[in-house]
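Q: What would this chain look like folded?
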Amino acid sequence: MSYRYAYITGCLILFLFWLLIFLKRKDLRREMLWASFWGMPFGFVDFFLIPTYWNPDSLFGFTQKYGVGIESFIFLFVMAGIASVIYEFLRKKKPVKLVYGGRSHFWLLVFIPLAYIAMSILFPSKAVYNLMIVGAVGAIVTAYLRRDLWKQIFASAFIFSFLYFGVFLLVSLIFKGSVEHFYNLKNTWGILVLGVPLEEIGVAFFVGAFWSTIYEYTKAYREKKIT
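A: My prediction, written as structure tokens:
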């Protein structure tokens, strides 16, 4: 069976969720686009994950040639946009500018990627776990500095990881055997949840937690219930 289209299929399914939110909530479009375009360059993480953690077939064979593929950046674009607004979408909230003491903070957008790169150079065989660690650190730091956002961080982590798990499961059912074909399971915990590697759920949880409030923290916004 050909698995060349498995990765892009997962991206397209997630894009349908992205598009649904984008079309239904005009008030969240600015945040979605901001988060998606900032998140897209982080597709470079596949460079550290391939081939130690996984080695997916891709369009034009780019992942095998260069360590990253077109799908890597599409995936991060879509995932970043969804993670940033999934809580607001379900809770019917929108971001508004802080009235007092609100100023932009971009340092986390620089520190977290640099920390991940440094850790993955030092511990290349642990790249996927490094991703979970920096995501958790980013979420904890954000929650500490902006305690009004802790509920959104915690809830978003669960909601986003549940959505990601569902999409992953669907793709693995469409492309049977893709998990065993793509992943170096001997280099993982070896725990599969309905066929989904536990690491995938962990990354979605911790990175989703961090990215869920990156817009609010960076741009000094807070959540407000829609009236």
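The radius of gyration is 17 Å.
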